[in-house]
Amino acid sequence: MGTNLAPILANLYLAMLQEELKKKCVNDQKLKWPKLFLRFIDDGFGIMEGAKKDVEYWIKQFNSLRKTIKIDKWSFGNSAEYMDIYIYKGEKFFSTGLLDFRIFQKEINRYMYIPAKSGHVSHTIKNYVLGELKRYIRYNSLKLTFLKIRTKFFSRLRNRGFKKVINVQGSDHHGTIARVRSGLQGVAQKRGWDIPKTYPDYVLHKMVTVMRHGEEVKISKRAGSYVTVRDLVEWSGGVTPEMTPEERELALQRGRDAVRFFLISRKADTEFVFDIDLALQQNDENPVFYVQYAHARISSILQQWDGQISDLKSADLSLLQSKASDHLLRRLAEYPEVLTDAAADLAPHALAFYLRDLAGDFHTFYNADRVLVDDQALKLARLALLSATRQVLQNGLKILGVSAPAKM
């Protein structure tokens, strides 16, 4: 379908044919409407009860409606495929009458995964893997079937160059770790692969408690009450119906920054309270504001200086003799190791902690040492220190997916 309008037109046209056949069923006693009929644009799925000749007669009548539109596949028996779902009569059918379903992969699609070394940006590859796993969960009615196909999926990913796979799940899924790993070991032994016994890695998250207006927001699976990420973003940004589109976008950006920074600022295996009131505060108690404000303040100082950043490369850093500047220099030197350890330990919260400490050291330095002094050499040295601090703050925030505003 070559245009955005094509699926809409196709859907309307098929709906018209569907209604035509329904009218025929009213006037023709031999023509029975299916017990179940589903359609996604031009892909239809139906379940009929009766003799084979009744089904064939129904198909014949449908195919006679238009010369170019035909039903080209049907099944008489216990199973059928529809798009990427395989529907079948499982064990529970004979006791409950319910059908089972699982993912159906066409042969042509089974190995068409994005290679790990493709030209796609990293988030595209990650989102692809996450999207596939969500699809498997949705389209497998039995847990055992889901575990089997997930094992196949992981083995195919590894075959395509993905050497590291990380499952991020709730802490109540800890029981699946041993089963998935043992299943992959079985596949590895059969195919001669050298897969570590700890493959794939797991990060299990504890539950999050949401506080708003000083009270806990009640969440209950049984009652069907929940808080979405969209809710958190809008609440944390202070979005209101009266806002203009520009004001709303700024508020949503504040909300996105707060949600990302707050949720990543704690270890996965610890309980966490997400305080909406704290996220709305524009002061030092709000951790994301505290870090962003450090970046904005440095940007303002460099703008007041009105010089070229390239000129700071020749600054004499030996002039930085104060205790506050020494603390800041040492903190900056820790950044590469913090980043390496955070990645190796699957602990992004370590980076959030580091950025808060770095912002604190900067604020201490700013209050202790005046930057735009008359001594030209000392001024350039302190500006070079601030420029490096801003660069690290910007890099760290970018890794966390949080904006680094130049003004606040």
- Taken in chain order, the helices and strands follow as HEEHEEHEHHEHEEEHHEHHHHHH
Detail the poorly predicted runs: 107-112
Strand content: 5-15%
State the CATH topology of the largest domain. Answer: Isoleucyl-tRNA Synthetase, Domain 1
User: What's the CATH class of the largest domain, please?
Assistant: Mainly Alpha
Kindly state the mean pLDDT as a whole number? 82
Strand count, sense and barrel status of the largest sheet are: 3 strands, antiparallel
Named at the architecture level, the CATH assignment of the largest domain is Orthogonal Bundle
The tally of beta strands, per DSSP, is: 10
SS class:
mainly alpha
CATH superfamily of the largest domain: Isoleucyl-tRNA Synthetase, Domain 1
Query: Which strand order spans the largest sheet, edge to edge or round the barrel?
Result: 3-4-5
Radius of gyration: 30 Å
Measured as a percent range, the helix fraction is 40-55%
Helix tally equals: 14
Question: Can you tell me the number of structural domains?
Answer: 4
- Principal-axes shape call: elongated
